[in-house]
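Human: I wish I could look at a protein chain and see how it folds. This is the protein in question:
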Amino acid sequence: QVQLVESGGGLVQAGGSLRLSCAASGRLSSGLPPGFIVTGWFRQAPGKEREFVGGITWYIGNTYYADSVKGRFTISKDSAKNAVYLQMNSLKPEDTALYYCAGSTETGLSWSALTGESRYGYWGQGTQVTVSS
């Protein structure tokens, strides 16, 4: 059974930075460690739908970001630790949300398809990020 655990959320002033971590443990049904094809970050603000923030491919490390965070957020990974990170700089109050990491085992999908949460079968519980103005 695979578990994803996010950490690193908190309260920060506008313009500040936070680094979120997503640690994966356990094994997939195939018996392999959770080296997901893609690990994505999503967020959900109060009263809004969950939205894609960005993602990283596990083996090559290609990244893709939503336009709203491009240039401010950076996703990286540590394969040895089965961990993925979301570095968030120049934070804005509108970045306030519950942030989730999610793992996808689907192959051959475009980034456009991978912005959809239905492509991800594994989810963490989320970590709260609050940006004050």
